[in-house]
Write a structure and sequence with these properties.
The complex is a heterodimer of chains A (about 725) and B (about 100). Chain A is mainly alpha-helical. Chain A is built from 29 helices and four strands. In chain A, a hairpin with a 2-residue loop joins β1 and β2. Chain A starts with a helix and ends with a helix. The chains are: A mainly alpha (about 725), B mainly alpha (about 100).
Chain lengths: ~725, ~100
């Protein structure tokens, strides 16, 4: 198969799987997941073939695989849509296809395939467990299969389709289509357990919040189209077009067209990648099933946001040679850096195992955005790839922990929150595979030196930041320190020490469908980092060629320079990661049963603020949500709808009624009805008058006939004679 | 020879007797008998007119025989009706045969 056709076909298997499962296989659980996984495998294989071909092509960056068709006639030209695979697409497809496949596989075990149906399980609620008798006849509570098992696989199939579409697009329009499909899927999947009010509101929150970004992004796309007449990346990112956009001034004073478009597009990313101030939806998205969290946080949704800004980087950085930094880059640097430290600080005060990871995602996405803001194109992409692997690993690991804890909760029968880390502890002996893989993921997140992938990508961000914007560098270093600290806090609380609840004591390793993806992702969470070891790194630099920088850097027309080695970022990186990990271990090494966070006392009031996420939810509630609800109730509903619109309608109705009454009383009742009644009444009265004639006595009739005959005879006689 | 008018007066008287019987008698069979009298009055007229006005033709006699036949048929149908009526209602009084009343 030639490469162009292969790219076109790449997103199709998950889409077909979606339709097939939705239409036909709801009853057959094993078929549902087989189809979904088969589709993921097909896309995965296609991706691998593509990657293999791409690597073998010399100067792939200058000659991307591209294919497009005419789609919409616009006047005398055509709007073209198409697919393109360049080095950036290749590395994105690489992590997307692997993480998607792993998450699909993991979902089988997570949704308890093979377990009995729960007696009280309802669609829209997490399974409550089923009673099962063991060989000795003892009845016990075990995990039960998810009631909407097939629907889940259909939705994640559609989700994967959206991501593949987005990644292989060669233009902003189809990218936006994929972007919105993912928005829909995130809504459906976060609200997968829709009978829980918290899940419902989280789904709405996620959808509405990302929508704010999407609207701005659509404006940006519209502006690009009106300014350049094209949406294809190759045209809008060509040097000539960029130069034109930089020269052109925008309707907003002080911004060039390129600057305005860049900022609008970046707002789309703020929404999708949960950057401050639109970060609020991502932690709430934890209400969905854990594979969905992994899907959103690693494989698809938030990565799509970063992918967009990486893809549009030439536009965002257009005019970088001029006097000052382009505004989009400044915005990215500021918001990325701020988000990185902001989310990291919140994460240290969260007790829910998934919420900690959610905030770490926001923080790490901040790193990527900040890296782009300081010009670290390759560094951002690199961190995107490594982050996808270790964050997918962490989320699936946390899902495995929760699953093990739920098993413990069912076995012991005391109902504690299986997601609260203070109820865990000592799980390393109960769930060894989960422990080791989670630790690998955690160390990668913390940037544990030399071994883990996270170290290499984060180090590269540090190098770029140190080289271009030292202030950004300092903040990011601080965030990395906090990251390492809360990661170790999480590992210590979850796995180390002694079990702090009965449930944790009875926790149980999860089935192979869940642990196998963990192991595979653990492998990638370590090895992907080795693809991008800088050439002039002390001792080990150059052992493995810095393939990543060469390959991804070739996407840009101006090849990004390799920044010479400097000891400061490296030492900082070592210090913050090891220091943070050490500190975390020291503080949390012996948390006992009292379930009080050791950092609560030293942080004081700050702890409460962090615990409440800087009160952003409350703030938004007060400033945006409640006013808009009040606006809807008082102005739109009570005034506009009830008073103005309903009033006008009622007025029209009343007038019509009056006219109708007039016609009824003056025309219909007296004339039309009157005539009808008259005919009837007269007939009745005549009947009453003539009724006595009908005596029924035949002789009387005959007398009448005789009299009449005689009478007529006499009359005729006098008339005619 | 007896003049024609005598016959006619006699027939008229007979017709009136029959008519009175039809209109005044309560017994339905008497009513039928009244009808027979009226028919026979007509027959007398027919025979009288034939004898005095056109004795060369036999039209009056033929007509009379036809009236006899019709009268016989009529009486047989009427009597059958009355028998049926009597079986059903136990009476043949003309006053009580009033099912067609309003």
């Amino acid at each position: 198969m030639n490469s162009e056709l292969l790219i076109w076909l790449l997103p199709l298997p998950p889409l077909l799987a979606f339709f097939f499962i939705v239409l036909f296989t709801n009853r057959t659980k094993w078929l549902s997941h087989s189809i979904a996984i088969g589709a993921a495998v097909l896309s995965f294989l296609g991706t691998m073939v593509l990657i293999f071909r791409a690597i073998q092509t010399d100067h792939f960056g200058e000659h991307p695989i591209q294919s497009s068709i005419n789609w919409l006639p616009t006047g005398d030209t055509w709007l073209q849509i198409g697919v393109m695979v360049d080095p950036l697409t290749v590395v994105t497809l690489f992590f997307v296809s692997i993480t998607v496949l792993m998450i699909f596989l993991y979902s089988i075990g997570y949704h308890n395939f093979g377990q009995p149906k729960g007696d009280h399980d309802l669609p829209g609620l997490p399974p409550h467990g089923a009673v099962k008798a063991d060989v000795h006849g003892h009845k016990k509570l075990v995990l039960s299969i998810e009631p909407m098992y097939s629907r889940f696989f259909a939705f994640i199939g559609l989700f994967a389709f959206g991501m593949y579409t987005l990644v292989i697009s060669d233009n902003l329009l189809t990218l936006f289509v994929g972007w919105e499909i993912m928005g829909l899927c995130s809504y459906l999947l976060i609200g997968f357990w829709f009978a829980k009010p918290s899940a419902r509101s989280a789904a709405i929150k996620a959808f509405m919040t990302t929508r704010i970004g999407d609207v701005f992004m659509l404006l940006g796309i519209a502006y690009i189209y009106s300014a350049t007449g094209s949406l294809s990346f190759q045209e809008i990112l060509s040097p000539a077009t960029l130069e034109m956009l930089v020269q052109k001034s925008s309707p907003i004073v002080g911004l060039t067209a390129a600057g305005l478009i860049g900022i609008l597009i970046f707002i789309g990313t703020i929404g999708k990648s949960a950057q401050w101030p639109l970060h609020v939806w991502l932690p709430d998205a934890m209400e969905g099933p854990t594979p969905v969290s992994a899907m959103i946080h690693a494989a698809t949704m938030v990565s799509a946001g970063v992918y967009l800004v990486v893809r549009m980087f030439p536009l965002l950085s257009a005019g970088v040679g001029h006097s000052s930094l382009p505004p989009p880059m400044v915005a990215m640097a500021v918001i990325g850096t701020f988000t990185a430290i902001f989310a990291a600080t919140i994460a240290i005060a969260q007790n829910d195992i998934k919420r900690v990871l959610a905030y770490s995602t926001i923080s790490q996405l901040g790193f990527m955005i900040a890296a782009l803001g300081v010009g670290g194109y390759v560094a951002a992409t690199f961190h995107l790839v490594t982050h996808a692997f270790f964050k997918a690993l962490l989320f699936l690991g946390s899902g495995s922990v929760i699953h093990g804890m739920e098993h413990g909760v069912f076995a012991t029968g005391n109902h504690i929150d299986p997601q609260d880390m203070f109820n865990m502890g000592g799980l390393r002996k109960k769930m060894p595979v989960t422990f080791w893989t989670f630790t690998i993921g955690g160390l990668a997140l913390a940037g544990f030196p030399l071994i883990t992938a996270g170290f290499w990508s984060k180090d590269e961000i540090f190098v770029d930041a140190f080289h271009h914007q030292p202030f950004v560098f300092i903040i990011l270093a601080l965030s990395a320190l906090i990251t390492a600290f809360y990661t170790m806090r999480q590992i210590s609380l979850t796995f180390l020490g002694k079990p702090r609840s009965n449930a944790a004591d009875h926790a149980h390793e999860t089935p192979w469908t869940m642990t196998a993806p963990l192991v595979i992702l653990g492998f990638f969470a370590i090895t992907t980092g080795w693809l991008g070891i800088p050439e002039d790194f002390p001792i080990i630099g150059g052992l493995v060629p810095n393939w990543f920088h060469e390959f991804v850097g070739s996407t840009l027309t101006v090849h990004p320079e390799t920044i010479p080695f400097h000891p400061v970022p490296l030492i900082t990186s070592l210090v913050v990661s090891l220091g943070g990990l050490g500190l975390g271990w020291y503080v949390y090494r012996k948390v006992t049963d009292e379930k009080v966070d050791p950092i609560q006392r030293p942080l004081g009031k700050m702890y409460v603020i962090l615990k409440n996420k800087y009160y952003f939810d409350e703030f938004y509630q007060k400033v945006f949500i409640q006013p808009s609800i009040r606006f809807s109730e008082k102005i739109v509903y009570a005034f506009m709808d009830r008073t103005v619109i309903d009033g006008a309608l009622h007025w029209i109705a009343n007038v019509t009624l009056i006219i109708g009454k007039f016609f009824r009383n003056s025309i219909d009742m007296p004339i039309v009805n009157g005539f009808g009644d008259l005919v009837g009444n007269v007939t009745t009265k005549l009947g009453f008058i003539f009724r006595p004639l009908q005596t029924g006595k035949v002789q009387q009739y005959m007398i009448m006939a005789l009299v009449t005959l005689v009478a007529f005879t006499i009359i005729f006689y006098y008339i005619f004679f | 020879m007896i003049p024609l008018s005598w016959y006619l007066v006699f027939a008229a008287a007979l017709f009136c007797v029959g008519l009175f019987g039809v209109l005044a008698r309560k017994n339905a069979i008497a009513v039928l008998m009244g009808i027979e009298l009226m028919l026979n009055a007509v027959n007398i007229n027919l025979v009288a007119f034939w004898r005095y006005l056109g004795p060369q033709d036999i039209t009056g006699q033929v007509f009379t025989i036809m009236v006899f036949a019709v009268a016989a048929a009529e009486v047989s149908v009427g009597l059958a009706l009355f028998i049926s009526l009597y079986r059903r209602r136990g009476t043949i009084s003309a006053d009580e045969i009033d099912l067609m009343k309003w």
